[in-house]
Amino acid sequence: MGETFIISRIDIKKILTKLGISDKSIEELLSSMNKMHRHVNVVSFASMLQKLGLKQQDITNVLRRMGIEDIAITSVLNILDEEKIRGTLGRVVDLDIE
User: Fold this and answer.
1) Burial of residue 67, with CB atoms counted within 10 A of its CB: 0-12 exposed, 13-18 middle, 19 or more buried
2) Is the pLDDT at 93 greater than 60, yes or no?
3) 63 and which of 47, 68, 71, 85 could share a cystine (Cβ 3.0–4.6 Å)?
4) Quick one: which of 31, 20, 28, 1 has its CA closest to 61?
5) For the purposes of burial, counting CB atoms within 10 Å of the CB of 73, is it exposed (0-12), middle (13-18) or buried (19 or more)?
6) Largest Cα–Cα distance of the chain, in whole Å?
7) Whole-number Å distance between alpha carbons of 67 and 27
């Protein structure tokens, strides 16, 4: 996945607006990206989209519109799933067995 994909702020806004994301949330996303000097790892970007409430299918569509191939998108989504599993397994749980 070592490729670079470029998308304008306007295109991001258009795509996310069509998916029902509020202007405020879009601006917060773009602000976060600006803090990272407008260079974002695709996994981090997909995670940001997930935090906005987008489902995997919507994230897939956004990444496709950016020109990312399906095999790379599948890899990104698998990484997100693995991170979610690790986060869940890392929680401390009290378990009493009788």
Assistant:
1) exposed
2) no
3) 68
4) 20
5) buried
6) 59
7) 23
Structure tokens at 80: 């997100």
18 phi and psi angles, rounded to 5 deg? -65, -25
Question: CA 72 to CA 9: how far, in whole Å?
Answer: 22
Task: Give, in order, the Cα–Cα distances in Å from 54 to each of 21, 61, 70, 90.
Answer: 9, 10, 18, 24
**Higher-confidence residue: 69 or 4?**
69
pLDDT in tens, 4-62: 778 888 998 999 999 999 999 999 998 988 887 777 888 888 999 999 999 999 999 99
Give me the half-sphere count of Cα atoms (radius 13 Å) on the Cβ side of residue 79.
14
Say if residues 35 and 53 touch (Cβ distance below 8 Å): no
Contact 68, 4 (CB under 8 A): no
Length of the chain: 98
Asked if 25 contacts 50 with a C-beta cutoff of 8 angstroms, the reply is no
